[in-house]
Amino acid sequence: MTDRNDIDPSEPVLLSALLTPHRSLNRTGFIVLMCVFGGMSFATGIVFLIMGAWPVLGFLGLDLLIVYWAFRINFRRARAYEEIRVTPSELNIRRVSHRGHRMEWTLNPLWVRLETVEHEEYGTERLYLVSRGNRISVGRFLGPDEKASFYKVLLAALNAAKRGPTLNPVS
Questions:
Q1: Residue 5 phi, psi dihedral angles, 5° rounding
Q2: What are phi and psi of 55, to 5 degrees?
């Protein structure tokens, strides 16, 4: 994919999508959750300390540390994204992992077809772009309903690219 400065401004963008993993807990919610969980663990630990079972206080602190570590990993993995851009002449896919590793593909939208893997109970499980024997999975972290919705939008953009540019003469 080219830099934003190299994009031809005369070519219309049929689809520009930024797909990111869903996270239901934001930073403020995380701080509140950790404060509540830490307060409960501390209060429980003090009760056990008074009863003479002082090692329990350490294990409750270890539990708090493990929960904090798990959420840090979860937030770090939320940095991943996929950017998909369709114009009449190009289909650009940029995938960036949570570690910052980039993979980019540029395909001709005239030769691309969409494939889905459906499950009768769960819905759309996988979404693939297929071109010249290459199969690229897109929207891996989307849910089944989101994949089905994105499939329709992407299919409409690819069909618009295959139809070619629409000229609207001014009369």
A1: -75, -20
A2: -65, -25
